[in-house]
Design brief:
Layout: E1 12-18, H1 24-32, E2 50-56, E3 60-66, H2 78-88, E4 93-99, H3 106-117, E5 122-127, H4 147-152, E6 160-162, H5 171-181, E7 201-205, H6 219-230, E8 234-238, H7 243-249, E9 256-259, H8 264-270, E10 277-279, H9 280-288, H10 291-298, E11 309-314, H11 325-338, E12 343-348, E13 359-364, H12 372-384, E14 389-391, H13 392-399, H14 403-408
Parallel strand pairs: 1-3, 1-4, 4-5, 5-6, 7-8, 7-9, 9-10, 11-12, 11-13, 13-14
Antiparallel strand pairs: 2-3
Helix pairs in contact: 10-13
This protein binds iron/sulfur cluster.
Iron/sulfur cluster binds next to helix 6.
């Protein structure tokens, strides 16, 4: 992510799907105006989803996902269906790219069924329209007398458009139709801004130790600062060792102290009891998830037994931004608290098991890289399978006995 970029978790996600050799990657490139995917005449060149964050007018900041081409040989196959569903969990709008010279095939119909099943708004782009004869249907309006075309393009579908990645035909129209399909914006959630007034002071505690990334703050910290500034409040950023002195000289009680969860114990001791305290990760549990579910999930630590499995899930795809908190510190703290011999499984990025039944607890990171749709899926999956799901910050606060204080500051009351 560049310095000026909207985080991936905040972007509208558009997924492109289709059979191998339907020209899907070429359509993605025509729509984005960039060489986004590897395009080749050899079928199935795109083997992994390719993601690209970009500005796409008239939509604004979007995340484009170019998915691997589906098989030509009939059924999609279990693995591809699973992969497709995984990508669709993050997708706000889908585009099915169909080879117009062949028309809709069984795998295309299967994809359409999945879109409908998951309530994903979609468009069908009949690509290679330049290869169709003069009398072939265009613009989704087949002519009545063309029986063959009727068979290939069932009805004059309002969800279909004839396009050509080669000539650029109707590519702009496709973008405009995509913009029209975007679901109406939901109520804009805020990380902390809804609890602030102009002129408030908020003190942020960010340790800068060997494990912090070089030369920058991590995304949850950046997004919190931005939200504070949007509320016309003042963000004061300190390391944990300067906190006590800063509070003493501030001249005004801060509206909040927000800390990195790793230094919760020290910060909780240094912040006077009448100053609301919480953590970046807890703010994200509220923003991307369901704080009540996360609080209830943390209490499952009491029920853990020897040999129980705990899933630690992180949203980063490649290298973790939150360093070793999930893989090293959290397992250690959980083992120390429970005094149990626990087994840990770790997942990252888009990976998240469909079957959570082997786990007695799921601890999720703040998910700043994942969009709200994906987090909603994960939360609902855990709830449906009766597996407690919590969040790093909530769990750490629970293990340190300060959870009620840290969520009451966010106007959520819990039993001590
Ligand atoms: S581990 Fe989670 S909270 Fe941390 S940066 Fe990655 S997605 Fe964001």
């Amino acid at each position: 992510m560049g310095l000026n970029d909207t985080p991936a978790g905040e972007r509208l996600t558009i997924g492109f799907f289709g059979r191998r050799n339907a020209g899907k990657s070429s359509v993605v490139n025509a729509v984005t105006g960039q060489d986004l995917a590897v395009v080749s005449a050899v079928r199935g060149t795109t083997t992994d989803p390719v993601r690209k964050a970009m500005e796409l007018l008239p939509l604004g900041p979007v995340l484009i996902i170019d998915t691997p081409g589906i098989d030509d040989d009939g059924a999609l196959g279990e693995l591809r269906v699973r992969k497709t569903r995984q990508i669709l969990r993050q997708t706000a709008v889908a585009v099915l790219v169909v080879d117009a010279t062949l028309g809709l095939t069984a795998p295309d119909e299967e994809l359409l069924a999945i879109f409908r099943d998951q309530n994903i708004p979609y468009l069908i782009g009949y690509n290679k329209a330049d290869l169709l004869g003069e009398n072939s249907p265009r613009d989704g309006k087949p002519r009545d007398h063309e029986a063959r075309d009727h068979e290939i393009f069932p009805a004059a579908r309002s969800d279909a458009l004839f396009i050509s990645a080669t000539t650029g035909e109707n590519i702009d129209a496709l973008k405009k139709r995509l913009a029209a399909l975007v679901p109406a914006p939901e109520i804009k959630l805020r990380l902390i801004g809804d609890l602030l007034n102009g002129g408030d002071f908020v003190v942020l505690v960010t340790p800068i130790d060997a494990s912090a990334p070089r030369g920058r703050l991590i995304l949850p910290q950046q997004q919190t600062i931005r939200d504070i500034l949007e509320s016309d409040a003042t963000a004061i950023v300190v390391k944990e060792f300067e906190l006590r002195d800063t509070l003493a000289h501030l001249g005004k009680k801060p509206r909040f102290v927000i800390t990195d969860s790793q230094v919760f114990a020290k910060v909780a001791a240094d912040v006077p009891p009448d100053v609301p305290l919480t953590s970046f990760s807890i703010l994200f549990a509220r923003y991307k998830g369901d704080l009540r579910q996360a609080v209830a999930g943390a209490a499952a630590a009491e029920n853990l037994r020897d040999g129980d499995a705990v899933l630690i899930a992180e949203g980063c795809t490649h290298h973790r931004q939150c360093d070793d908190i999930g893989t090293v510190k959290l397992p250690r703290w959980l083992k120390n608290y429970t005094r149990r011999d626990l087994r840990f499984t770790f997942t990252a990025g888009g990976e998240f098991p469909d079957d959570l039944s082997p786990f007695k607890l799921v601890a999720h990171c703040g998910a700043c890289m994942l969009n709200a749709r994906e987090m909603q899926y994960r939360r609902r999956l855990a709830a449906a399978q009766h597996v407690p799901l919590t969040n790093y910050g909530v769990l750490i606060a629970y293990l340190q006995g300060i959870l009620p204080r840290c969520v009451e500051s966010l106007e959520l009351r819990v039993k001590s």
